[in-house]
Design goal:
The two termini are about 30 Å apart. Strand 1, helix 1 and strand 2 form a beta-alpha-beta unit. Helix 6 packs parallel to helix 8. The chain has a seven-stranded mixed sheet, with helices on both faces. By secondary structure, the protein is of the alpha/beta class.
Length: about 220
């Protein structure tokens, strides 16, 4: 059976991060590798030390991350899974989600990115709040998130890049609820606010890469 690597960057939300990743692992229904990419300033030890004797494979990376994009890409470098999933700490998951995801990639050797329903935005909107890619696509791109972004618009870039490569697959029947602050399902905090500050940078870069045809 293929292995899933859950890539989870976190900053300033140690307990929420731990609770989310623990839930996802317990409900996966299959083997999962967890890679936690944490900021050195976080007081994470009292939560994540509980993984030290766990039965599943995991890695904890602690760096002075400049952005969620950098934290994600650093984690992806350490992944060994056949499928890589970006997981933020405001996502819920159904039971046996891992088995459902594996079915979408089964028999696919070509580079592939699966778009699921985040139960927040209309499915037709070209964003990827919880992208899932196979290793073939990761190796084709050389990154998980394009490294010139800080946070905003990076998922739109991935969407259109995958579409350009004919590597995009739609799975609206797979539902992972995005419990975002914008709909009152999470508390506003510094992490959300810092991400929003990168809107202009991301918008300008996206426009530039779109005009160039999203080069790989």
């Amino acid at each position: 059976m293929a292995l899933i690597s859950l890539i989870h960057p976190s900053r300033g939300r140690a307990k929420k991060s731990f609770d989310t990743t623990q839930k996802w692992i317990e409900k996966a229904g299959c083997e999962v590798q967890l890679i936690l990419s944490l900021d050195f300033s976080d007081n994470y030890n009292k939560y994540f030390e509980q993984y030290s004797n766990s039965l599943f494979e995991h890695k904890v990376l602690v760096n002075e991350n400049s952005s969620v994009v950098e934290a994600t890409n650093q984690a992806a470098l350490k992944s060994v899974g056949d499928i890589l999933i970006y997981l933020s700490d405001d996502f819920d998951c159904p039971s046996n989600w891992g088995l459902s995801v594996l079915k979408e990639f089964e028999g696919e050797d070509r580079p592939l990115l699966v778009k699921v329903d985040d139960c927040l935005q209309k499915f037709e909107v070209p964003v990827l709040t919880i992208p899932m890619m196979n290793r073939a696509l990761y190796e084709r791109l050389g990154y998980f998130w394009h490294g010139d972004y800080k946070s905003m618009f990076v998922d739109e870039d991935l969407y259109w890049t995958a579409r350009k490569l004919n590597a995009l697959k739609f799975a609206p029947h797979l539902k992972f609820e995005h419990q975002h602050v914008s709909v009152g399902k999470a508390q506003d905090d510094e992490t959300y606010r810092n991400s929003a500050k990168n809107w202009d940078q991301g918008k300008a870069l996206f426009a530039k890469r779109k005009a160039a045809g999203f080069p790989v």
